[in-house]
Amino acid sequence: MPFRLLLLWLTAGLLFLSACSSPDGPPAEPDYLTRIPDPKTLGETYVSNPDSLLAPATVQDLNATLQALDQSGRAHIDVVAVHSIGEEVPKTAATALFNRWKIGGKDQNNGLLLLLVLDQRRVEMETGYGLEADLPDVTCFRIQQQYMVPLLRQQRYDEAVRQGVAALIRQLGSGSAAPVPSDSATAPAAALSTAPEATPEPVAGHEYYENNGWSGPAIVAAWIMSVLWVGTTLALALQKPAVPAPRWVLWLSLGIVPTYVVLVILTNWPLPVLGLLALCYGFPLLYTTLYLGRVNRELRTAHAAATRHKQYSFLQQAHHNLGFTAWLLPLGLWAYWARHRRRLQQLREAPYACPQCTTPMHRLQEQADDEKLDRHQVAEEHVESVDYDVWQCPRCQHHFTLDYQNLSTEVLPCPECHHRTLQPQADQVMLAATTASEGWGWHVHRCYFCHHEQKEKYTISRLATSSGSSSGGSSSSSGGSWSSSSGGSSGGGGAGSSW
Predict the structure, then answer these.
(1) Domains detected in the chain
(2) pLDDT of residue 54
(3) pTM exceeds 0.85, yes or no
(4) DSSP letter at 481?
């Protein structure tokens, strides 16, 4: 009996220990989240310096400067300088601290966290949604590389943090992180800082330079031009050329332009914004110019002996879907397109000599030429798939007809009568889609001339269900203090640098 009691006691003890060590309970918070104090708990300050990496004078100056910035309503910046955060990734730690402390106003989301981790030799900037337009990732990275990393490599941590904060304030105040000249009549950052900032000292092996135009409107212009470059390059690449096209220009641009952007973001090279604009504009212009040059060379050689009607058709097909380049690439192409339109007009509208009596013929008006057309030709003109010109000699009444196809029409050749009169009709929904099942219907085409009908089945995706619920916002705040840090959340933006 004592043996059985002992066995039961040991079994119960093992079960108790296993229950206590069960991983089903909530995971413990990372050590750094509790070890690093929230600056708001330190007398409404802005610097958390638990390991005393920064000198007391630096902390005092930063608190005064950042308090003025906060009270101006422009932004709320918190600074953290620690020896270690263990094995945690600095970017993850910055996001976690930002959201835990709710940096910035709840409505403005104008918070920023500057985190310095000494043992990982890493500096991180985490921004709220409201600052992502003023401090995009590339700007945060350039501020780190230009004003902080060289000083951090020399273990000048106080000066690095001072210069980084000063550059952020200048960027927020004037749209440029570059220091204001000492003899300037106005200092853009003065309204946001209580203490004047000196021009950063030169650092060995690193040359400070102006922002090279990469600020404010220049970044917006570069972004717009990059988007237009992508759209233009895709449109040109999808073009079905009438002559061999210089595709190598497009492939070359797909390598050079992204490389330029990467170098701007990841290096400290003084690459001007005008360089990117020139690349984004120059490659599509070069491709279009070379292609149109080949088209005109083909016209002068292979189509030199062709009739005016065939020359017109060739030029129309070769320039189809390229008209947008006259507006996107006016420098170099505007004059060409004006000349091209005049050439097409001359090829189509210049009078023909009558092949029987050589008398100049005239083109009949739209209503008068219908009498000379067949019924299917009248139908094709009605659906605007083909436009017919009828030329008639006023002397001997001889006439002939020329067809000019509409390359942009959705009307197709009819498989029954073989005329270009098969028009798309409204889709026929046979079974409506629901949240539980798909639906289906018919894509319908009907011939305007012979009334032949062609159907193609298609499916309709299931309807999306709306959750009908919305998450309530956090009601936590800093207890009625003057600090704007009362509910901000990280937008995931920012940048990090190693030294």
Answers:
(1) 31-179+191-202 (3.10.310.50), 219-347 (no CATH), 351-409 (no CATH), 423-460 (no CATH)
(2) 93
(3) no
(4) -
